[in-house]
Design brief:
Number of strands: 7
Helix content: 25-40%
Radius of gyration: 28 Å
Strand content: 25-35%
Number of helices: 3
CATH superfamily of the largest domain: Immunoglobulins
Order of helices and strands: HHHEEEEEEE
Oligomer: single chain
Shape: elongated
CATH class of the largest domain: Mainly Beta
Length: 161
């Protein structure tokens, strides 16, 4: 019967343990640095400077906005490259705002933020030419009713081909 030849096993030394430990922690540190860099460079900013101060008028502003009984229908026509916002009152009639400001951007970063200028058309809907690539988008609307009541809304939508 043939004898199996055993290869000598190299001992696990302190140098091996040091290399293994440095490799393990090196990977963890590299991943943390990469994630921290992405977090800092893609942070869109604060919503409000002082959340406590903003919370003091939240309930009154919310009640006033709900009292308007507005319904807003949003749409993006990819073929026409046009964003449309249709504000209607409780009777389904178009609403004319005193002013309107719109922010369209990606939900997670500010690099592609756009502020289209909305114009009210003859049908009462607000529209603006806007070029949006495919994907998920955030729409933030801030406007005032004719009586000065603040209207704010934030929604998300997808642009699909």
């Amino acid at each position: 019967m043939a004898q199996a030849i055993e290869k000598p096993v190299r001992p696990f030394t302190g140098k091996h343990m040091l290399a293994l430990t440095l490799s393990f922690f090196g990977v963890i540190i590299a991943v943390n640095i990469g994630l921290a860099y992405k977090a800092i460079t893609t942070f869109p900013g604060l919503e409000v400077d002082d959340s406590y101060v903003a919370s003091q008028t939240f309930d009154q502003e919310k009640s006033a906005q709900e009292a308007l009984h507005w319904h807003v229908r949003q749409g993006y026509d990819h073929a026409k490259r046009q964003l449309v916002l249709d504000f209607t009152d409780v009777n389904g009639k178009p609403v004319t705002l005193r002013d309107i400001s719109v922010l369209v951007g990606r939900p997670t970063e500010a690099a592609q933020d756009q502020h289209p200028v909305m114009q009210q058309g003859a049908d009462g809907a607000y529209a603006a030419a806007l070029e949006l690539p495919l994907g998920k988008w955030m729409l933030q609307i801030v406007g005032h009713a004719q009586d000065g009541t603040l209207y704010q809304a934030r929604t998300f939508f997808y642009v699909r081909s």
